[in-house]
Inverse folding.
């Protein structure tokens, strides 16, 4: 990951990885800086409460996901 003035300016794949021979998808190669620094980027998790999306802590969001996943057997997830 290339960083300049505390901003992401580019990314590259893992050269030692076997998947995709270090290549990134198009969005990864060309879009990451604008996605990361976009003013409307979500920076906190949202959970649905009473039909509305509301901000939650990471612990709340992960606990919710874990409880939902616990309803399924291992071969279904």
């Amino acid at each position: 990951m290339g960083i300049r003035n505390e901003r992401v300016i580019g990314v590259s794949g893992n050269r030692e990885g076997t998947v995709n021979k270090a290549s990134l998808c198009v969005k990864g190669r060309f879009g990451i800086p604008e996605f990361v620094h976009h003013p409307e980027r979500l920076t906190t998790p949202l959970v649905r409460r009473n039909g509305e999306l509301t901000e939650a802590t990471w612990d709340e969001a992960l606990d919710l996901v874990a409880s939902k996943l616990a309803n399924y057997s291992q071969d279904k997830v």
Notes: The longest strand covers residues 7-10. Strands lie at 2-4, 7-10, 46-49, 52-55. The mean pLDDT is 87.
